[in-house]
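Quick one: co-fold with iron/sulfur cluster.
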Amino acid sequence: MKGLWGRPTVINNVETLANIPVIINKGAEWFSKIGTATSKGTKVFALTGKVNNSGLIEVPMGTTLREIIFDIGGGIRGGHQFKAAQTGGPSGGIIPPQFLDTPIDYENLAKIGSIMGSGGLIVMDETDCVVDIAKFYLDFTVDESCGKCAPCRIGGRKLLNYLKKITDGRGTEQDIKDMEAICDAMCKASLCGLGQTASNPVKSTLRYFMDEYMEHIHDKKCRAGKCSKLIQYKIDPAKCKGCTLCARKCPAGAITGTVKNPHVIDPAKCIKCGQCEASCKFGAISHG
Ligand code: SF4
Ligand code: SF4
Ligand code: SF4
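Sure, here it is.
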């Protein structure tokens, strides 16, 4: 085994090394009293996303997500609803609300499909689309893949293409089956940790948020309004005063109507630029 300058080398992260002086000073028994039966001590998380208080926090292993997000993080920003949390950085799983009260340690995170990883903890609300989030993280890991082994090199790119297809409104149920098979192959056959964990955001969202995948596939709908190709602009006829401003602003000629009568948007022509919604003074145009 050769490491730095041809010598045996031990690599540890700073968090591990920072525990050593405390254990030497206060003893292993004291340290072992903190945490859960299987994961001892404390854990540092980089708490960020849609929480009121973000920053680096240190909590005993076994602290629940609810305590971290609502007691320490001060709850969800802007009065929004908690939707999910992602632990462990780009290779971590997306954790749904039913696990808010699960004590967080290495073992429980593995059970619910995530990892401790780099200690990242990103909080999401209902304005986040889980399919789009899975695509975002996979884009990162595909970029990071060194390309040495096929499961990670080819599997990651294929998964990303499927996610793009679904967020563009072209997905099928067969794509979901293919994605599940690719996730499985990447986990089992990739050479290193990157490829073995890269599919976690996809696997966890398929496991916990399948209804949102199905909405993208069957209803061509993104409930969070994040997938721009699936956004639909609509005019509420009860609010429309027929001022014609939106029709004059629309760069695609997608809006028709006569003065003082409700206007209509042709979805086939709409290029989702949002200019009509921004220009209407009567709040008659919305998207979803
Ligand atoms: S799993 Fe590791 S070795 Fe294989 S391509 Fe990905 S980064 Fe490279
Ligand atoms: S700008 Fe608003 S009120 Fe005017 S026509 Fe368009 S939707 Fe109707
Ligand atoms: S979103 Fe843009 S293209 Fe679509 S109807 Fe409104 S102004 Fe026209």
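If it helps, The pocket of iron/sulfur cluster (ligand 2) is lined by residues 235, 240-246, 263, 279-280, 282, 284-285 (CB under 6 Å).
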